[in-house]
Amino acid sequence: MGARAKIAIALVVAALVATCAGIAVFSGRPVAAPAPSKASCDAPPIRQAAFAQPSEPAPPLRRDGFDELFRTGREVKAGGEAAVVEVVELGALDLPTGRLLGGDPTTVNDVTEPPVPFLVRVPPGEYPVSVAEVRFAGSGHRRVAAARLTIRQEPAVRWELALVKGEDPAKLGPNEFYGYGVDAGLGAFVDADAVPALCRLVGEDLEGPLMKALDGPEAALVRDPVSGLNVAAFSSGWGDGSYPTWIGYAANGQVARFVTDFHVIS
């Protein structure tokens, strides 16, 4: 099943219709749990600490080794079932400002609220995006386990949470993280300058170019014809929830990649 088919349309249509007439502002700041009733364009979501899994007790939070999630052919357990990892290359994401945002592309905030990129900035450029999908042995069904933006090819020797302004990792418990909230079963990577394109790409009735591109595939890279910039979007693992993005650093201290972990692979 494609990502678009899994979206709870009733949760987001009303908010998008009300907001798309103006400039939509996309924020990486999430809620810690799925929205109770519907997405809102009138109040920005609050980014806060979240548990690795909604179930109790939560398993240990993965804090490193994220490149292993992208090893094609690796046999894994996902949701207790046997699966095999397959890596899908989406293409190059435009980062004209080097300021990356991660979040649910269908969630738009009040037009007075500025976008919130991650604190760590990278040199402007075009960087490849890939997703790690797991294919279940029995059914052949697929889920996106993680999404990666590669800045450098060098191995990542250290991983840290991707933070936005005001977040303090010292305040987190041993199994907590800062991550973005998902209300529509989708995550995305986008440059700060491409934020206004999101409302056009999603569409007032969820029939925009981005949503059509996800009608079948689990991930897509779509270009906005107005701004000329693109957005990488992907289904978010098991669906709605809150998911962390991690930054991998090379041995020389430079940023090597960003990885969003959707907590699919055990």
UniProtKB/TrEMBL annotation:
A Pfam family the protein falls into: DUF4241
Protein name as annotated: DUF4241 domain-containing protein
